[in-house]
Design brief:
Order of helices and strands: HHHEE
Number of helices: 3
Distance between the termini: 81 Å
Radius of gyration: 24 Å
Helix content: 40-55%
Structural class: mainly alpha
Strand content: 5-15%
Number of domains: 1
Shape: elongated
């Protein structure tokens, strides 16, 4: 039987190890949250199947209001303060209205020129 020439025991400070593990988990969770919100935004505003934003939101059905509200809360209370700039869940000019049943209706930015006015849906 052969013994190792030198033996050693790694010294691990349990407090430092705990902090390192916590830091890794927080970074991983933050990254997952950013990814989730980006994926959701892309699904609505740049749908890979070509669906319009309203078609996507209509497909969400009665979950749409909760999805929009939760996304807004997470964006304003978590992402914006950490990232250090304003993060929006919707492109500029868009707005939404929630119904009592939880559905959402989107309003696209209106486009107008000095000579004519048009309404967008």
């Amino acid at each position: 039987m052969s013994l190792p020439l030198l033996s050693f025991s790694p010294v691990v400070d349990p407090v430092a190890q705990g902090i390192q593990n916590l830091t890794l988990q927080i970074n991983r969770a933050f990254s997952q949250l950013q990814s989730l919100l980006n994926t959701g935004a892309a699904l609505v505003w740049n749908n890979p199947s070509g669906a319009t934003p309203q078609q996507v939101v209509s497909t969400m059905g009665t979950n749409a209001a909760a999805i929009f509200q939760l996304s807004g809360i997470l964006t304003s209370s978590v992402l914006t303060p950490i990232v250090g700039s304003t993060v929006s869940i919707m492109p500029p000019g868009w707005s939404y209205v929630t119904s009592a049943d939880g559905t959402v209706t989107l309003t696209a930015p209106s486009t107008s020129t000095s000579t004519s006015t048009s309404t967008g849906t």
